[in-house]
Design goal:
By secondary structure, this protein is mainly alpha-helical. A two-stranded antiparallel ribbon has the order 1-2. A hairpin with a 7-residue loop joins strand 1 and strand 2. Helix 2 packs across helix 5 and helix 3 packs across helix 4. About 15% of the residues are buried.
Length: about 130
Amino acid sequence: MTTFARRARASAGRLHPELSLVSYTLLSHLEERDGCRATDLAAHYALDKSTVSRQVAALERAELIERRPDPEDHRVQVLHLTAAGRRILAQVTENRQAAFRERLAGWPQEDLTRFAGYLERYNAWPDGESDDG
């Protein structure tokens, strides 16, 4: 798992030099949710608010995200992807998928099916539960 995580972090930089794995993850979440507050990001990923604040500031400087007033409560700022953010996220996602296809190209169908099943099982772990039983 450590090797898997290390490779994921390294590949994010190769796929787009300005996009760390954390940045990619945050952009993906914003796209999936069609925007959210920074405090929601911190809560979802169990990160310190200051950590998320630094990441958000960097993404804003890169013009990949923008703040908009919440239509229901104008005191609240909601983070959204910009057009540039959507383009970069799509490019990185496409590059990651191509890298996965290349890496798995020689695997027999039976191995791919088994691997997919294991990933589904791993990802089905209930949120909020510890890994130590």
